[in-house]
Amino acid sequence: MARLYIDGDEARFTKKDICLVDMEFYDGRKIEDLEPRRLFPVSGLMKYISLLDLDGKEHAIIRNVDSLMPESKEVILQSLNEYYLIPKITAIVDCSEKYGILKWTVDTDRGRQSLRIRNRFSDIKVLYDGRILVRDSNDNRYEIPDYRKLDKKSLFFLNSEI
Amino acid sequence: MEIETVLTNKEVPENIRAKFEENVEEGDQLLFIIVGDLTLKSKYGVTSLAVTEKKFMVYDPTLEGELEIYNHSDVLEAKVKRMYGNARLNIIFKDGEGKAGEKKDVFRFTYSVATLCDMAALFIENISAGKKLEEEYDVVHATYEKMMNVCPKCGRTLVRQGAECINCQSKSKIAGKLIKYIKPETKVLVICLFLSIVTTAMALVPPYITGTLVDTVLPNKDRDSLMWIVAALFGTYILQFGIGAIRSYMLRISGDRIVASLRNDVYRKSQSLPMKFYDKTSTGSVINRISGDTATLQSFMLRISQEVVVQFFMLIGIVVIMFILNWRLTLLSLIPVPIVVVGAKIFGRKILPFYRKIWRRWAGVSSVLTDTIPCVKVIKSFAGENRTVEKFERYNDEWLKVDISAAKIATAFPQVVSFFVTCGSLLIWSVGGSWVLSGTGGLTTGLLVSFISYASMFYGPVNFFAYLNDSYQQALSAAEKVLDILDAEDEPDFNKGNCPPIKGKIEFRNVNFSFDRTKKVLSDVNLVFQPGEIVGIVGTTGSGKSTLINLFMRFYDNYEGEILVDDVNIRDIDLQYFRSQIGFVQQDPMMFSDTIYNNIAYGKPDAHVEEVIHAAEIANAHEFIARQPDAYDSMLGERGIGLSGGERQRVSIARAVLKNPSLLIFDEATAAVDSETEHLIQEAIERLISGRTTLMIAHRLSTLRKADRIIVVDKGEIIENGSPEELMAMKGKYYKLVQIQTMADQVKKSKEEENFE
């Protein structure tokens, strides 16, 4: 069966729940209770969004969220923002290391948080575009969008890890 | 039910606790509180979920009035919805409450409290369903107990309650771990040390004699004394360098033994690490630690045990002699020392991040190597050589860049030190020279020459100690990684020696599992298999079939619930014994670079030749082995090059036959072979399984024709469980799979027949 890709304005999305949306095509077909999920949560935040029903069955893929109508785009983004909690670290306020475990206090777009990093070599991943993905000891994820734009103090703390 | 203390995962802020307590009515009591860190609006902040016998309360600063209260009895369903980096506790209300079927997110949290919230959801649902409070509270208590198995110092999860935290051991303990490797070499090292002191003492003689030459022998034109002194110097040099050569040889041997022993330990440890270690650490980085970092540590251990002592004696010896020769000039020559020492400290601080970076980049290069070299066939078949080379070069260039920036600091520092040292000798020449010229300070030309020689020797040990920090930092970085393996917890095996005979009853009791807490892979699995039963496990890819087997094989031990064999928890059985009782045949069996014979005899190296041949016969492997030019002596490559997939599979079945296991597991053993080979393998399997409890994962349902029972796994849950006939009658998932496959098989068969014709 051919996969259904949504490229632009052929479908409209309305909010159903915190994470759920309804999809309505212009020919009147309607699919309810769909959960948008990123197919590339690391490398493509706005592209290839899978729409799954409550049984986990995929009904369509949005090729690019930016190509949707503004209201639909807003609905999809809200849903994705609720589903994916990857706080963006804006500054590393404090950093200490004891017994090989790094303890960071960071400012994020969701507030201040303290986190522990067990393995500095595998839990801090530097990507080529300057992004850094961080995983804490509880498997929570964080992102530094571009480490080159951090303040001097944060860079000082981060220096040996990148 | 009376409880002693309210269970909490961390300290509950006073104002929140007070809010909860004032809402607990008489006849009710607070049981447990979960302190969370995320509000419903997805912002960080302190939140709490308090559960009493009759209700639960949510404190969230973003709620209107900050507090919401719900009765357990109103709840139809309580589920945790796991998302990415966060989760929600979802409630569906019962009918008749004015909110029938209404769904509500009541509590939001990060994964730090996900396990506790899972437990809370189950508690609420079960209490609402009328289950016994005491029993449910026991589960709550056990979950908290498990959660509290953390080190009070660093918060790290311990392997069991009361276990020593490997991260919180003192530095002296870490040193103690490394000294263990030096200890066996103590005798040789002490001899080397003695020889070093002798050579050091000898090295101090020539400058003094030179002074005498300049002051007495040369001005007096005393040829005899000159010859004697030259001969004495010659003798001293022979002894000094001769002893030096012997010492170097002994040190080399000793060092080799230290590094070999360290490598052995790290390798041995790498074999006993749990699978979850390898899930998070690339094999390239493990190889790097075994090969490179152990050598760095060895060289540092030798430096510490030898050079430090020698250089220290040298330093003291020179300073004493210099003071005896002229104390004022000695003080002058000490001027550059603080600069060198402070500089070394700064240097150490600057260079450590670079060493970490270099290691990180080098691990990247190594992982490209370990990924691509064994897969060279795949790379060539997809014409991916250029891409692979590009990737390697990119990683290698990254390493180069960091190494070059480290080189700037690493090379600039010695030059700065040398500059200050040279300036120090200029100071001695200018001050000492003017004293010789003016005849003051009791200094002669000979003494000045001797002094200058000692002063230049003096900076050797000073430099050594200045750079010691550098090699210390390198060693610390290497030790961090080597000890990461050495100190990692082994696969849990607390019941060594407990080897009960295994008849074959298997039971999964309330088993839940998640690899990294982000997604539950198995949910509430309850199964019982009787001895000798043949059980087929079916389900779509990713449904959790292999995970079920991985847990049973004890590759992962961090699951909730219990798995029992003959009513004994498998965690209570000696791990090696337990695995030795299982014959495990995988979909893609790995072959070692060894003969076919040794590959079959891998699980029983002392097997008699005829046992091996017999095992091969049972596995339908003997015939094709006998057809090979080197028969059982045929060498197999890294992944069994030279054998087809079906042949490798039969060798692996022969391995299992030879082991004569009590339990058998087949993980899609016939998935990758053609129909004819499948028939041969199937025949071999049927011979092998008779009388043994057998778990067979199969995509091809035809493989399961002998199964007494089929279980169907879907999204980590057992959705069907019964005899093939029962499941067919149910017309559920199994029925659908059979229908689909029968059609596919018919198509396949007709295609095969077409090709044959």
Task: Characterise this structure.
The complex is a heterodimer of chains A (162) and B (757). By secondary structure, chain A is mainly beta. In chain A, strand 5 (47-52) and strand 6 (58-64) form a beta hairpin. Chain A folds into 2 domains: 5-83, no CATH class; 89-161, no CATH class. Chain A is built from 2 helices and 12 strands; from the N terminus they run E-E-E-E-E-E-H-E-E-E-E-E-E-H. Chain A has helices spanning 70-83, 152-158, and strands at residues 5-6, 11-15, 21-25, 30-38, 47-52, 58-64, 89-98, 101-108, 111-117, 124-126, 132-135, 141-144. Chain B is α/β, with parallel strands linked by helices. Chain B is 56% helix and 15% strand. Chain B has helices at 14-22, 114-128, 133-147, 171-182, 186-220, 223-272, 275-280, 283-325, 327-333, 336-372, 376-381, 385-438, 445-486, 545-552, 575-580, 596-600, 609-618, 622-627, 645-659, 675-689, 724-730, 733-756; strands at 7-8, 30-38, 44-52, 55-59, 67-71, 75-82, 87-93, 103-109, 506-514, 520-529, 534-538, 560-565, 568-569, 582-585, 663-667, 693-697, 709-714, 717-722. In chain B, a hairpin with a 2-residue loop joins strand 3 and strand 4 (55-59). In chain B, helix 5 (186-220) runs antiparallel to helix 13, helix 10 runs antiparallel to helix 12 (385-438) and helix 17 packs across helix 19 (645-659). The interface between A and B is large, with 36 and 42 residues.
Fold blueprint:
The complex is a heterodimer of chains A (162) and B (757).
Chain A: E1 5-6, E2 11-15, E3 21-25, E4 30-38, E5 47-52, E6 58-64, H1 70-83, E7 89-98, E8 101-108, E9 111-117, E10 124-126, E11 132-135, E12 141-144, H2 152-158
Parallel strand pairs in A: 1-6
Antiparallel strand pairs in A: 2-3, 3-4, 4-5, 5-6, 7-8, 8-9, 10-11, 11-12
Chain B: E1 7-8, H1 14-22, E2 30-38, E3 44-52, E4 55-59, E5 67-71, E6 75-82, E7 87-93, E8 103-109, H2 114-128, H3 133-147, H4 171-182, H5 186-220, H6 223-272, H7 275-280, H8 283-325, H9 327-333, H10 336-372, H11 376-381, H12 385-438, H13 445-486, E9 506-514, E10 520-529, E11 534-538, H14 545-552, E12 560-565, E13 568-569, H15 575-580, E14 582-585, H16 596-600, H17 609-618, H18 622-627, H19 645-659, E15 663-667, H20 675-689, E16 693-697, E17 709-714, E18 717-722, H21 724-730, H22 733-756
Parallel strand pairs in B: 1-2, 11-16, 11-17, 14-15, 15-16
Antiparallel strand pairs in B: 2-3, 3-4, 4-5, 6-7, 7-8, 9-10, 9-12, 12-13, 17-18
